[in-house]
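Consider the tokenized backbone below.
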């Protein structure tokens, strides 16, 4: 089914009131990116795949104890012929200097790797105050860093409803945070991609409530995470947000109604192809033995995206 037709179908059958709101506010609501009708995908690897091995912040002690550095990660990506790499923000030095960003840029380029994007663990649901201001500043800082490294997109989170608050208020604050950061991102040429990452983005209806309220900007889209909808039919739900994807990541496990199962990677790739998705598919491996297992999944994904 063509992406536009599918979008209309899911609006009518799943999104209900949220979809009606989008139709009524088509001028101001975020729109799916315009594509050329032909899907094209490249393969990247997320730094989070080595979460157990990379230091969380680079103090001298964590460097000493960590089994890998980001340089090791870049070399791993090149050794296994990934087209790109995604250096997640969590594993950068505690103090991110321009010199270090230049090192990342030159090393990845010399290894023949694109920096497909980066990711931050923000929470835009927080109420007004110092903590919220810090989250907005972190996003702006990483927009600057992404632009310096040449990373075209940042995966952002929405957050969760604070204790004692309600979802509608949290969504409104989230939208305000996205809109504020989006204005800055546009000046730096960096996309913000909202990820379906639990909290107030646990379902496609919640995602659409946010998307519908975000201002229409060519610098906004969705990061489709193939493993993060934990509903009765995660594949059905991924198809709802796929037309909005400007970045996509896949996991090798999905959770259906609280039970883990092996992901149908072919089905996830088909959802992206049906949406005419063009861009990176980022493998985010969260299981054990990444050094051993990632090459196998990389081959499988290559076959699927080029098949």
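A designed sequence for it:
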């Amino acid at each position: 089914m063509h992406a536009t037709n599918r979008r209309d179908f899911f609006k009518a059958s799943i999104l209900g009131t949220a979809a009606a709101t989008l139709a009524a506010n088509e001028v101001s609501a975020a729109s799916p990116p315009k594509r050329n009708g032909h899907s094209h995908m490249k393969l990247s690897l997320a730094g989070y795949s080595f979460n157990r091995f990379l230091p969380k912040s680079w103090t001298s002690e964590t460097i000493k104890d960590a089994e890998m550095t980001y340089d090791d990660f870049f070399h791993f990506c090149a050794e296994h012929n990934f087209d790109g790499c995604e250096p997640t923000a969590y594993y950068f030095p505690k103090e991110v200097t321009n010199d270090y960003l230049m090192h990342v840029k030159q090393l990845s380029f010399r290894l023949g790797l694109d920096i497909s994007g980066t990711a931050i663990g923000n929470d835009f649901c927080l109420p007004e105050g110092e903590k919220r201001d810090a989250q907005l500043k972190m996003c702006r800082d990483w927009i600057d860093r992404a632009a310096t490294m040449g990373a075209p997109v940042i995966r952002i989170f929405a957050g969760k409803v604070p204790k004692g608050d309600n979802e509608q208020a949290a969504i409104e604050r989230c939208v305000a945070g996205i809109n504020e950061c989006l204005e800055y991102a546009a000046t730096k040429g960096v996309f913000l991609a909202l990820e379906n990452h639990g909290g107030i983005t646990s379902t496609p209806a919640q995602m659409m409530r946010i998307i519908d309220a975000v201002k229409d900007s060519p610098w906004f889209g969705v990061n489709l995470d193939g493993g993060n909808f934990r509903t009765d039919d995660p594949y059905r739900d991924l198809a709802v947000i796929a037309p909005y994807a400007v970045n996509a990541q896949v996991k090798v496990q999905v959770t259906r109604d609280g039970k883990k199962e092996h992901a149908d990677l072919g089905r996830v790739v088909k959802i992206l192809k049906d949406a005419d998705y063009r861009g990176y598919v980022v493998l985010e491996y969260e299981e054990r033995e990444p050094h051993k297992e990632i090459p196998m999944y990389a081959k499988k994904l290559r076959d699927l995206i080029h098949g």
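Residues 9-27 have pLDDT under 50 and may be disordered.
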